[in-house]
Structure formats: C-alpha cells, structure tokens
Amino acid sequence: MHTFTYHSPTKIIFGEGTVSHLLPELKASSIARALLLTGGKSVYASGLHDRVVKELGEAGIVTETVSGVQPNPRLSKVREAVARAKEMHAQAIIPLGGGSVFDSSKAIAAGAASEYDIWDLMLKKHPVTAALPIYGVMTLSGTSSEINDTAMITNEDTQEKFPFFNALVFPKVAIVDPVLQYTVPLNQIYYCSLDALSHILEPYLATADTCNVVSEHCEAYARAIIRCLRSLPQALHNYEIRSELAFCGTYAHSGWASVGRSRRGDFSSHRIGHALGAFYDLPHGITIGVIMPNWMQFAYDQGKGHEIFTRFAKNIMGVTEAPGNDFALAGIKEFRKFIRSLGMPVSLTEADIDAKDIPALADNAARTLPFGALVPMDVAAITAVLKQSL
Amino acid sequence: MHTFTYHSPTKIIFGEGTVSHLLPELKASSIARALLLTGGKSVYASGLHDRVVKELGEAGIVTETVSGVQPNPRLSKVREAVARAKEMHAQAIIPLGGGSVFDSSKAIAAGAASEYDIWDLMLKKHPVTAALPIYGVMTLSGTSSEINDTAMITNEDTQEKFPFFNALVFPKVAIVDPVLQYTVPLNQIYYCSLDALSHILEPYLATADTCNVVSEHCEAYARAIIRCLRSLPQALHNYEIRSELAFCGTYAHSGWASVGRSRRGDFSSHRIGHALGAFYDLPHGITIGVIMPNWMQFAYDQGKGHEIFTRFAKNIMGVTEAPGNDFALAGIKEFRKFIRSLGMPVSLTEADIDAKDIPALADNAARTLPFGALVPMDVAAITAVLKQSL
Predict the structure, then answer these.
(1) Which member of B17, B212, B220 has the closest CB to residue A216?
(2) What is the pLDDT of residues A21-80, one digit of tens each?
(3) Residue B221 belongs to what H/E stretch?
C-alpha cells in the first residue's frame, strides 16, 4: 500500500425520519442564525424546506433561505449567498438538496468567512483560513458531497468548471433520509448513481497498486449500485433498495476507494466530462455515462489496463464468458450496455453534441491538466477520447 | 437498512515513515505541552519514543512520559497519568503503542479535563464534558483503538473490566506505520489480528438485517485478515502483507461493520472474553480465540444463525464442500482450525483455565448484561458457552 491520509470527519445520520436530528445538532453547537440553501422545487414540494424553517424558527434559530441553486452550480449564486450569509451574520450553512446544493454550500461557507471573493479563494490567490460549519440534508445521494471536502463550481462568465477542496468545509453533520429521494425523477436517480459508480471506478481502474482488500471493497460497492439500479424500476418504494443505493452513493466518494494507491484515481472521465458539463449544461451523470466507457475503450486500445478491465468485467459487471476470452473488452461492452439500459446516452451524438465542438471541448478539459493515471493525458489524448465518444 | 449514525472523525496518516507527520500536526494546533504514554519496551527498543521526545523538544514542545501501560490496561496507571497530565498542564495526550496505550489515553484525556475521578466518569456518575486531544502513533494494529471512541479499562481492585465510550475522545490524529510493527512478536500480531477479525465478525454474525453491501464489505476485510495471517510467517518483512494487515486492523472496529444493522453487533464473545481477561490477565486476542468459535457452536446448537454461518463458511472461511452439506458447521470447524493454526488455544483447558472458575467467570461477564443479538444472553447461556469452551 502507498502512504495515505484519510480524513472523513462528517457525522452521518442516515435513515428514514432522520431530519428530526437537525435541530438537536444545531442546538448542541449553539447555532442561532443559519442560512438555508436550496435548489429546485423538490424540497418545497416534499415539505422539507418549510418543515426545517418552522422547526428551527420555533426553537429560536433565525433562518433565511437562498434558493435556486442549479445543477453544475454557478459562481453567481454562490456570491449571492455569501453576501446574504454575511448580511445576516449566519453562523452556519444548511444545504437542503443534492450535490449541487452541498457543493455550493462549501464555497459559501468559505466565502462567508473570508474578506476575499470566493473565486479568488478557489484560484488560490488567497488562503482559506476559516469556514462556517455546514449541517445539511442530502436529498439525492450519489455525489458524496455531503461527506467530502470537495466542490465543483462553474464560473458562467468564463465557462470554467473548477474544483474547490478544503478540509475546513467538510460538512459537520450530513443527514440522509432515503425516503426523501422517492419523489426524485428516476432519470435523476440514474445520473446520480452513475456518478457514484464512477467515483468508485476512477480509483479502481486507475492503478493496480493498492492492497487487494481496497479493490474488493470497491467491487462490493460497485456491484451493489448496479444491482440496485437494475431492481429499482420494479421497486420504486422498496426501502431496502432505496437505502442501499443511497448508502452507496453517500460513501462512494468519501475517499476510501483511493486509500493506499499511488494515485487517488484516474479522473480523466471526470475532467473531460466536466468540460461537457460546462459547455452544454448537461447533468454530470450524463457526461460520465458518455465519456467513461469510451475512455475505457480508448485505454484498452492503447493496450493499458488489461488486467484491471478483466477484473472489472468479472467482479463488477458479472461477465462470465467472453468472445475470444477477452474479458476486458467484454466488460467495457457490458458497462456501455448497462448505461444504455438506464435510458442514458453513451455517445456525444446521442447526447446531441456536435463533432465540431471537439477541439473547444478538448481545449477546455486540457486547462485542468495534468490528469490521467492509467493513461496520462494531453490534448491529443483528450481529443482521442472525445472522438472515440462520437 | 436500519437507521444509523456513523462518525469517525480521526485523521488517519498511514504508511512507512509517517511518524514525521506528528510534529506538524501538533504545531498546526499550537500544542505546546503534551503527555506521552507508552506500554512495554518496544517503543524504546525501536527508538520511537526517543525520536518523538527529541523532535518535539527541538520544536519547543514540552513533553513528559508515563510508561508501563499493560495489556488489559489498569485504572491505577490511568489515574497516575491523569495526575501527571494535570501537574504538567498538558494540552494533548500522545499515545505511542498498541490498543492498551490508546485505550488508556482516552480515559486519561477525559480524566485530565475533569475535576472528577475517571472511574466515576466511566460509571457515569458525572458527565464527560471535555477531553484533551489525542495524537497517537499506533504500533500494533488490530484494536482500531486509534480511530474509535472506545476504551476498555480494568479496575484491578474490583476485577472489573468496563468499557468507556465518548465522542470527545476520538483521537484527533492517528499515525500508523506498518514498519514499526515488524519487530512485534508474531504471537502478538496474531492476537491483535484475531481481535480485528472478531470486530468484523461480531456485527457480521449478529444480524442478517443490514444491506448486502455492508456484509460483502465485512467479508472482504475478514478474508483479507485471514489471507494475510496465513502468508505472514513466510513473509515477515513483506510490506504489502504487513500494510494490508495493519490497514484491516485499523478499520475493523471503526463502526462501519455495524452500519444499517438493528444491533451494533452480538459481542457475547467479547463480553465473555473480557471476563476471562479480567480474571486471568490473558491477552484479549486469546480470550476471543477461545470463546468465539465456541460461542458460534453454542449458537449453532441452539438452531440460531444457520444462514449467516453458512455464508461465513463460504465467503470468509472459503469452505467449498461440507459433510452432509452442512456448511454452517463446517465453517465453525474451519474457523477453529484456523485459530489453532496460529498456535493459539481454542479452549479454556488449552488456555489453562479451570472448569471450577466457570461460575465466577459467568457471574463476572453477566455484570455487563444485557448483551447478545444472535442469541440473547443470560447467566445460564454464558455458562453454557463457557462449558462449550472447556
């Protein structure tokens, strides 16, 4: 095993009805003023937002709400919320929503505790020295944003989608109630769960140089996500399936899949996918579904990763026989077939992306180089993956 | 899945040479005075203690050392260290050692921050409201004491071995360097690793009512421990095996094996084992090795756990065929055989414990009732497990 640091300090409160834990957690830390953050309509339709406002208000906690966080969360909304948090002297940020709402809450938590603009903090022009604590309710599991210290924020002025990492923005408390996810449209569940799966596969496929137990751990979670997604359409209100899927989505990107590896993960699929997300405002899960199997095919064609792709085929995709005994190739095909079975596009064409945009997409993705562990990437390699994805 | 809270805030720094991270971590929190805590001779023989004293001293951090923490750590030593910590106005506790040293450090951290006696805090006569931060170096993985909030302390006056749990005593930083464990006698590695294995099996065998991925996760770690222990005698300086074993020992008892279960674990084997430990001062791993397979046999004879014992046999012990197709029984036998292959006793007799002590042992274990999930226990059931163990 390679040397690693693992830190996941978030307290996770998981299960049906656990929203009732929010107030006691805030009271235990004497929070008196908090900014709520929401995305689309679902937290209003489900009653979650109004319930939280009422319960906190009755307990004497002052709240204000910034709503309208969008997928691929925008810098402008972050800036708006930072201003509101400062104006109201918020002592905590309370995201109620999915990964975009949690991601935004991290940038807001850092921005609200700084005199500098959050984009300048993200560009590391100034250090992040403090952040407000985050107590959130996750309503769409898959990003693991509720338990990690990572955010992806899109600067709509520059069409840049950049990561923000800081140990000060780990949520203090993450509440995950799988029942709140019953009303999420099935395609969004698919997108988010595929994202979770990719968070396991990025490290799993990147390097063979960890200890075997970490790879077996990855395989168990990846199999579970695939198993749950296959069962879900026939069992939309099955709590066991919903909770196992939410559980896997919560933990997928906590960092454990990377422990002991020489590299945290490959993440070429993510970096190229983020470029698609920034240009076309596609759901992140769709960009992963389009790019990842094609990145696999690209790597396979380069003669890379044969051993781990074979293992992926047998231990995750459940491939038991393969033409010409080529399990690696059969596993990639099976993965693509699985994504298509979810009704998701597996090519740029199916995602309505024009081949003429490839140079611009490659250029955008290349701005975050270096990346790529199984295959180290450059502009030519990124272009090759995009062409493979046509 | 059942509702759960999971919280494991300790920052783990794992790998060869990671002791160098101790000083920067202390400096980052402005620690100026710290009490070191050690057990036997190994941290002196390896140079670890002197190195830490020198590095911290050169950086202006005042240290004092309390040495001589024993296995089944004693209350008297905890009280001695609490007094020293108070006298020197320690701002942190630095355990350098194994599970007993870490366990003791937790009681010391709470005791040093309280006006009350630590045993009274353990008996919950007064609440624990504060604790000094713990920054430790684990030199014998298996207890997971470096990343959980649990301690077992023996009151030698009353022959009671009681648990102490408190979220305030999670170590802040745990450093695990597998190379520091090369010089530990092999039998101690066996004891500690068997303890780690039991920390996975207690929840795994207790209830079938979690999601499947958690059980598969348990199986991967249990298999890894068994695989590493089988390879170790022929590969004492193999870093891959050492690090995988240390990694599994670190994580086994962090709490993840219990998530989503209706009960955290069975823990009958632990409770009865603790009684043996308190009476005979046996290494904890030996008491587990004696009791756990016999508890399994007891449960099997009561007609309990057939399904999970079958799964244990196939997915952990690797049993591929069984007389009369009774995999459950074959798995229990294989587990006993495995423990014996480590040169460890698998019965009270082999551990030099007299049958006449059974009533007193049962009475001692019964003081911590209620326990037992697969089979709820009482004095008669405890006695039956002990007789099964003869």
Answers:
(1) B220
(2) 999 999 999 999 999 999 988 899 889 999 999 999 999 999 999 999 998 899 999 999
(3) helix B212-231
Between CA B365 and CA A278 the distance in angstroms is 62
Q: Which residues from A are below 8 Å from B200, CB to CB?
A: none
Residues in chain B: 390
Closest Cα in chain A, distance from residue B149 (Å): 13
Measured CA to CA in angstroms, residue B159 lies from B64, B164, B363 at distances of 30, 16, 12
Is the distance from CB of A128 to CB of A168 less than 8 angstroms? yes
Half-sphere exposure of A154 (CA within 13 A, CB side): 22
Look up residue B339 and give its two tokens: 């423990």
Q: Mind spelling out the 3-state secondary structure of B228-289?
A: HHHHHHHCCCCHHHHHHHHHHHHHCCCCHHHCCCCCCCCCHHHHHHHHHHHHHCCCHHHHHH
Q: pTM for this one?
A: 0.93
Pair B243, B178: CB distance under 8 Å: yes
What are B29-53's pLDDT values in tens digits?
999 999 999 998 889 988 999 999 9
Considering the segment(s) A11-180 as one domain, its CATH architecture is 3-Layer(aba) Sandwich (3.40)
Domain B185-388: top CATH class: mainly alpha
Distance, in Å, from the CA atom of A274 to the CA atom of A269, rounded to the nearest integer, reads 8
Q: Do B243 and A211 touch (CB under 8 A)?
A: yes
Instruction: Identify the CA nearest to A174 among candidates B4, B29, B23.
Output: B4
Using CA atoms, how far apart are residues B130 and B118, in angstroms rounded to an integer?
12
Question: How many other CB atoms are found less than 10 A from the CB of residue A17?
Answer: 9
Who among B6, B244, B260 is closest to A213 (CB)? B244
Q: Chain B within 8 Å of A243 (Cβ-Cβ)?
A: yes
Of the candidates B316, B189, B199, the one whose C-alpha atom is nearest the C-alpha of residue B269 is B199
Domain ranges of chain A: 11-180, 185-388
Token reading at A129: 């020295």
DSSP conformation class of B142: T
Whether B139 and B42 have beta carbons less than 8 Å apart is answered as yes
